Amino acid sequence: MTTPTPTRSQLGGSLLGQCLGDALGFVVEGYPPEICRGYVDGVLRAGQAGAHGRGAFAFGQYTDDSQLARELLQSFVACRAFDPADYAARIAAIFVEERIVGRGRATEEAARRLAAGVPWQQAGAPPPSAGNGSAMRAGPVGLLFSGDPAALVRVACDQGRITHQDARCSAGAVAIAGAVAFALERGAIDVPAFCARLAALVAPVDPSVAAAIARLPEWVAQSPEDAAGPIAALGRAAVSDGWQGISPFVTPSVTWSLYAFLRTPDDYWEPSAPRSPSVATSTPPPPWPARSPAPAPASTPSQARSSIGWAIKAPGCAPI
Ligand SMILES: [Mg+2]
User: Fold this and answer.
1) How far is the CA of 211 from the centre of ligand 1 (A)?
2) Is residue 205 part of a domain?
3) Span 110-122, mean pLDDT?
4) CA of residue 63 to ligand 1 center, whole Å
5) How many folded domains does the chain comprise?
6) Which of 66, 74, 110, 221 is the most exposed place for a label (fewest CB within 10 A)?
7) Ligand 1 centroid vs 26 CA: distance in angstroms?
């Protein structure tokens, strides 16, 4: 990695991109693939993005993913370095003060332990809890440490194990941070080379996540409809029955996010929601929640969570 310090534009673009994708997806987060596809085709592509929010939240609200990435950057700015104790205190505070929007159970439980005084090295959910909470916030690590791969891996792992101690979660965080760092480099992306470098970076942390990344060139050559099945299956053994589509288990969700980026790096529309064979060709009636005063499913503390610690119970989507 010989990337120079990211430019102001790259920093801003990466963060805005995360917030935008997060806000666009929040409306249907946790819903089955056919509902997500209907939202993309019938709402977003139709120029109606602002017509639907999520529960009490108007369209445009970003969620825990971006909030915790923002906190990581703010911690870095305040400390002039990555200080896991400071970041852990920020994670605890955003939950205790009920500022979090959407939440994974493992992250919330770790935050409660931190707030109760458990040291950050011990607060994270133990294996086999392996949601994507530590990966979803790791993008800024790639921006901050793009020129220092050893520091990138160390910080990605440390920021992650504050809430998730499973090695696969650390590997997912390294994968996202590494992908951001590689994407800062100028020029067209060579997918096989990109994936080989990323797999090599991740392999010492967890070989199973590295193996999934190493297979990405094969999947990137496939349509979203063809690639979604095998990528979703990466985590099937770890997920309760009933989850439809890409689950929030770290291995498939990180692999799918990398697939979406590498498949069409200059077009954020295409891989966003694979078309299920059961999807109607006409625009379905909007099953996603219109803006209303109803409680937001993703921000309700009592919402159903699986034994591996995430999931959003949404209307029409079986909880896991
Ligand atoms: Mg979220």
Assistant:
1) 26
2) yes
3) 98
4) 4
5) 1
6) 221
7) 7
Is 308 inside any structural domain?
A: no
For the chain, report the end-to-end CA distance as a whole number of angstroms. 39
Q: Is residue 317 one of the residues assigned to a domain?
A: no
String of b and e for 37-74 (b: at least 16 CB within 10 Å)?
bbbbbbbbeeeeeeebbbbebebebbbbbbbbbbbbbe
Burial of 83 (0-12, 13-18, 19+ CB in 10 A): middle
Beta partners for 54? Answer: 57
Question: Is 310 part of any domain?
Answer: no
CA of 187 to the centre of ligand 1 (A): 31
Ligand 1: centre distance to CA 14 (Å): 17
pTM attached to this predicted model: 0.84
Mean pLDDT of 188-210: 97
Residue with tokens 């610690």: 309
User: Ligand 1 centre from 147 Cα, in Å?
Assistant: 28
Supply the pLDDT for residue 186.
85
Q: In this structure, what CATH number is given to the domain that contains residue 182?
A: 1.10.4080.10
Range of the domain at 137: 8-299
pLDDT value, residue 268: 76
Mean pLDDT of the chain: 84
202 to 215, 235, 259, 317: CA distances (angstroms)? 13, 17, 16, 32
